[in-house]
Amino acid sequence: MITKTITDFDIRQTADSGQCFRLNERQDGSYALVAGGRYLEISQRGGEITFSCTGTEFETLWRSYFDLDTDYAGMKESVDPADDYMRTAISFGGGIRILRQELWETLVTFIISQQNNIPRIKKCVESLCAQFGERRENYRGEPYYTFPSPSVLGRLPDEALDSIHLGYRSKYILKTARMVEEGAVDLSAIQKLKYEEAKAELMKCYGVGVKVAECVCLFALHHIDAFPVDTHIRKVILTHYPSGFPLNRYRGFAGVLQQYAFYYDVHGAG
DNA sequence: TGACAGGTACATG
DNA sequence: CATGTACCTGTC
């Protein structure tokens, strides 16, 4: 257990921001997460965040995962004072952090996300992990499952995912896994590429278009200038930015603002 | 009942 | 290159 005082951080907002599908609320209001093969519980009271891990693990894994060394206050302050929609979105969900998730897991989960809703995405991801991931035990003695590797998924026969009910996304995942397994797509090379190049490489994967590639760039590779446009963001732009979203003004961190806008559109009042 | 959910591949003009 | 359409599945 380790407790930290952290500003511009809200675990609930981050969990509900749609960027991550394995960060879930527990009965007692804390949150549980499986990432990097590890299990973590997070609880928050105001600015005090408690993590169920050692100080060493916090420093080596979770500080980076939750992006705690990035200056979110500065980004928020540089939003146009006349940009009423973004100001409101920030006051509503300004505790969101852009996580640094694993590339392979993010790629697969966002393939699953297409034409899908968040509860069902989560169900699919959990089934996938339970069937093909590694079973481990958390500190409570409860089982959890890691995310299955490209080599595990890439060697599966075509019908292996039928029981997960992924629909047409099954063939996207299997083909993409086989491409990674065969070396047609090199994930470790993609880690080193700039945003536009990484996006182009990711789009070589079968079932990965512009939107999924941009989500992977933003939520795994931390290219925070990536700006995924989905049905929600399309609606926000149409309604509140009739002359287009000011990408020019917000160059360099537009993806962070995209998350504020997405969260506000999905969870906000109006 | 049918539209919809954080889209994409593939076929046309 | 821009537009149209089929696609799995579950929920309301």
UniProtKB/TrEMBL annotation:
Enzyme nomenclature, EC number: 4.2.99.18
Protein name as annotated: DNA-(apurinic or apyrimidinic site) lyase
Transmembrane segments: none
Domain HhH-GPD, chain residue ranges per copy: 112-266
An example Gene Ontology molecular-function term: damaged DNA binding
Database matches in InterPro entries: DNA_glycosylase (IPR011257), HhH-GPD_domain (IPR003265), HhH_base_excis_C (IPR023170), OGG_N (IPR012904), Oxidative_DNA_repair_enzyme (IPR052054)
SMART domains per UniProt: ENDO3c
Keywords: DNA damage, DNA repair, Glycosidase, Hydrolase, Lyase, Multifunctional enzyme
Catalytic activity: 2'-deoxyribonucleotide-(2'-deoxyribose 5'-phosphate)-2'-deoxyribonucleotide-DNA = a 3'-end 2'-deoxyribonucleotide-(2,3-dehydro-2,3-deoxyribose 5'-phosphate)-DNA + a 5'-end 5'-phospho-2'-deoxyribonucleoside-DNA + H(+)
GO biological process: base-excision repair; nucleotide-excision repair
Family note: Belongs to the type-1 OGG1 family.
